[in-house]
Write a structure and sequence with these properties.
It is built from 12 helices and 8 strands. By secondary structure, the protein is of the alpha+beta class. The chain folds into 2 domains: about 70 residues, no CATH class; about 240 residues, Vanillyl-alcohol Oxidase, Chain A, domain 3, CATH 3.40.462. An 8-stranded antiparallel beta sheet has the order 4-1-3-2-6-7-5-8. β2 and β3 form a beta hairpin. α8 runs antiparallel to α9. It is globular, with a radius of gyration of 21 Å. The relative contact order is 0.14.
Length: about 325
């Protein structure tokens, strides 16, 4: 029987409050949220800082995360071309750039040291080209971009195309005709800051998809624990986002490249998001994602098994 409960950090449902993140709808669904917001200013000033070595890049990440800045993320184009982007709210902008139609935001990172965006445009800066994934739909070609128009250049359009392709398997059949096999490697992983160079050394020898998005992850409150996605509260992690397919001519085992990523993330003490394909064995999975706490919550809040369990949903896709 389904019921509605109110969870807060300090009421009788506090365990569900902290266990709900990374449960992917297997313990229930959020119907209403109370969230903390921050004051904003009209504009955001961006500073793009290039680094020629990975070591200096991650040192700079560490340094800026300790400072009083509003935003920080990064983009890696090549092993020796890494950009840190610092954003700060400002009241005045000498100009504003428009990346909602003909101009492409991620390309601007390589071309300019400074930029200004309206705050709303900053928040949605990646959406027009779904970071850079619009290139896989030819949407970065000027003519295609013109035909699509401003309203269709967004992640909603690209998601619809992906779902259509998943249903009809057009690219799969085209690859087969050309003698290729392909594997989608669509992942976001968290790696401890001090192991990020090790991760990139592995990455550029195996996966090689570029660009890569990077973003720091750190708990606001070190005393708070999210048991289904356990990160060390004393550490800064870097999220690496990489999204494409790898094509090859020889036959590979199912999930070959994704399995390599999973193994390396575990070796380096990181965590992997579960929104995409996962290949963990049953025992591996529950060792990582806290079997004891999960099944304790499941017993209380979904004892009848109305929802699939986390492994069945996220790994077996049932």
């Amino acid at each position: 029987m389904l019921t509605t409960v109110t969870c807060t950090p300090d009421n009788e449902h506090s365990r569900l409050f902290f266990g709900f993140p990374n449960s992917y709808g297997t313990l229930g669904y959020a119907l209403k949220l109370k969230i903390k917001v921050i004051p904003v200013k009209p504009y955001v000033r961006l500073t793009h800082i290039r680094h020629h070595t990975q070591a200096s890049y991650f040192r700079d990440f560490d340094s800026h995360c300790a400072q009083n800045i509003d935003f920080v993320d990064g983009t890696i184009f090549h092993p020796d071309e890494c950009y840190l982007t610092i954003g700060n709210f400002v009241d005045y902008a000498p100009y504003t750039s428009d990346y909602t139609y003909r101009n492409i935001y991620y390309r601007s990172i390589q071309k300019r040291d400074e930029d200004y965006l309206a705050t709303e445009d900053y928040i949605w800066r990646w959406d027009t080209d779904w970071f850079w994934c619009s290139q896989y739909f030819f949407a970065q070609h000027p003519i295609v971009r013109l035909l699509l128009g401003r309203k269709r250049l967004n992640s909603v359009t690209y998601t619809k195309i992906m779902r259509w392709n998943r249903k009809w398997k057009l690219t799969h059949h085209l690859d087969r005709m050309r003698g290729y096999s392909s594997e989608a490697v669509i992942q976001d992983v968290e790696i401890p800051l001090n192991r990020c160079v090790d991760f990139l050394n592995f990455y550029f020898n195996t996966i090689k998809i570029t660009p890569i998005w990077t973003c720091p992850v750190k708990r606001l409150d070190r005393n708070v624990e999210f048991p289904l996605y356990p990160l060390d509260p004393e550490k800064i992690y870097i999220n690496f986002g990489f999204w494409n397919s790898i094509r090859h001519r020889r036959k590979m085992m199912s999930g070959f490249y994704n399995r390599l990523v999973e193994d390396k993330v575990s070796e380096l003490g990181g965590m992997k998001s579960l929104y995409s394909d996962s290949y963990y064995s049953h025992d591996q999975f529950w060792d990582i994602y806290n079997s004891k706490e999960y099944w304790s919550l499941k017993k209380v809040y979904d004892a009848g098994g109305t929802f699939k369990d986390l492994y069945t949903k996220c790994v077996r896709h049932e």
